[in-house]
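Q: Hi! First time doing this. I have a protein sequence and I read that you can turn it into a structure. Is that right? Here it is:
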Amino acid sequence: MVVVTVVLATTIACMKPHVRTTLDHSTDIAQLWQEPLDLEQRDLFQGVGGAPLAPSPSTPFEFVAEDRSGYSPGYDVRDAEGLAWSVKLGREAQPEVAVSRLLWAIGYHQPAIYYLSSWTMTGGTGGLQPPGRFRPDLSTWKVVGDWSWYENNFANTRAFKGLVVANLMMNNWDWKTSNNKIYEIRDRDSRESRRIYVVRDLGASLGKTSFPKLLDWFPMRGLGQGSRNDIDDFESQGFIKRVEGERIDFYYRGIHQSVLETVSRSDVVWTSRLMARLSDTQWHDAFRAAGYPDDQARRFVAKIKTKVAEGLKLGEV
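A: Yes, that's right. Below is the predicted 3D structure, encoded as structure tokens:
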């Protein structure tokens, strides 16, 4: 039994997944990323959904169901207009909103999400509820599948590698396939539809990555690879460890090294230049939208800007 266990552990440890593309001539990079020509004008407080879609904290939400899936607790609720919402509570609610805003700002598709620091619910546990992330279930947005960091249509593109870099900057470490959604979006008037690829559940961000020793033998996601929403942890972890030509090593501890190996120096520069276009107001608004106190928001922004500056420096001649 001991021999079998050791052999199994060694086999698993040697199984290193590789990133490969399923790219064909019909693949449209706009499904993953669209150049943000209006980046400097984007409203990072209200986000992609804008103010008209924002949930009202003054009107109670009706309990529909309790959501016990995943790390964070939550509810499915319905507002006074009949619109269904997915609510996430706990430590992941704030970073999901802030990081979503920043990814959307630099051109990556994101669903509309909002943060309510105070809200009430009828039914279920009822009454005043803790802060939560609210995501609407829009009739024109339908999830039609998941997509993997390891096998997708975009793995050889600059936009995909930039997405990896942006997630590294935010220390998002929970890169499971079920967090990545393919949406089909239908136009109400023309009834035409299009598909977009989204990194949706971003709550395991703004902490630090870690590598429990057991992962040396069993490189599986369930063992945990970091902290969430922890400013001290976030400030403690570096970004770029070393650079040799186009090859770059990051201060990353986790099981997704093979994804990082696809990223080059120029990919980091490209992403950093997009991030550098954000104004101080936009940075502040992204964290204000997530309910962060000003002192914490300033520290998070300062750390991310340090990473952006490191990336920009790689592009200097």
